[in-house]
Amino acid sequence: MIQLVRGFKDILPDETVVWQRIEAAARKQLESYGFSEIRTPVLEQAALFQRSIGEHTDIVEKEMYTFPGSRDTLLTLRPEATASVVRAYIQHKLYAEDPVRKLYSIGPMFRKERPQKGRYRQFHQVNAEVFGIESAYMDAQLISMLERFFRKIDVSGLTVHINSLGCPGCRDEYREALRKALAGKTGALCADCVRRLDKNPLRLLDCKVPACREEVSNAPAMADFVCAACTDHFETVKSGLAAMGVVYEVDPRLVRGLDYYTRTAFEIQTDELGAQNAIAGGGRYDGLVGQLGGPVMPAVGFAIGMDRLVDLVMARQAAGVRPPVLFFAAVGEAARGRAFQWSCALSEAGLRVEIDFSARSLKALMRRAGRLGAEYVLIVGDNELAENKAVLRHMGTKTQAEVPIDTVETLVAAVTARVGNNPSPEQR
Ligand code: HAM
Predict the structure, then answer these.
(1) Which protein residue has the closest C-alpha to ligand 1 atom 2?
(2) Is 78 in the pocket of ligand 1 (CB under 6 A)?
(3) How confident is the model at residue 426 (pLDDT cuts 50, 70, 90)?
(4) What angle is formed at CA 395 by the lines to CA 326 and CA 253, rounded to 5 degrees?
(5) Is residue 173 situated within a structural domain?
(6) Are the C-beta atoms of 119 and 109 separated by less than 8 Å?
(7) What CATH number does residue 376 fall under?
(8) What integer pLDDT is reported at residue 290 of this predicted model?
């Protein structure tokens, strides 16, 4: 019997129901934020991806499905959507009336990667691009929109990682500094990194080989090279995220596998899918439209990996539980008494809350919160009662904040503000 091609997969009816639900929710979310749909072909000229993604990236060097077309052209099955959307934006002069365009698309991409769980040779993305907006608030809005989208489809517990890759000016300086610092260390680096050092030294930052990580940790950090304008931009992204209550982690190793990024780069990750932990990724690419022959135009976007997202949703469905948004870890009888009332009030306010009334240690309670997949834990014991403050911990990033517990009302207001701006019950 002729079997499926390795790395490709059938999506059977049990699963297509989940795909349709998520795609519909994505369209609704994107359209509420002003996006319109664009559909581009799966086949493009190879040169489009070589020039945009970058000659010395893994995608272009070894993962593209490329074959001869008519005359002397080489054709490639698209490995991502950004390059195609940029091509269409330029080719159809979508900037002519108003340079600001917000475009989304949903469809299959192709990369000849080594197949494993969460990594396929045909996979699907929900892709979104914004052209013509330089403001860092746009970057923050995209990340916050994504975070809220994941909540709406009931995928909580994800972590947002951000970094600034600077502009060509400051990045070139950093690239040189990195090259210089590691040039004498090639004996300690893996073969891939030795090659990357010359062609694309930034990629060394996300190498997983321990010896390379060790060398990179002693090398200069990108943050020290980012220029004043790029630093300001990044600070605005961070303050925008904070204003929207998005918990994020700055990850100086986040460089992403495509060369077109400038300034903001981000990923949304889960720890539930093993090695392939990025559910969505994106960033700013202010140089690409000009580089591909269009006008100089700022741009920013992202793509959600649908296959991984569906795997995550199905795994949670199979487990039969919806993880709590907030878990109460109350230690001691007095704290349990107060936490009991607070948890009822928060449930009534629409949050999915879980509380453990047993007399267990904080360590045991935290372990239970982890097993349940709680997004946040509210920790309260005798010390917190004495100080009139409880500790709100985000389980993904392990960051903590204090919340006032003077009255039930102040606690409910403080927690709902941090945990997601008064969500409606159906959202949580
Ligand atoms: P990317 O990080 O290469 O970015 O891909 C985005 C997402 O697609 C990943 O986070 C992952 O969830 C999913 N993905 C990538 N490769 C695979 C694979 N082999 N199997 C399953 N899922 C995969 C881009 O593609 C950029 N074009 C995103 C972007 C848009 N940046 C700006 N605008």
Answers:
(1) 281
(2) no
(3) very low
(4) 145
(5) no
(6) no
(7) 3.40.50.800
(8) 98
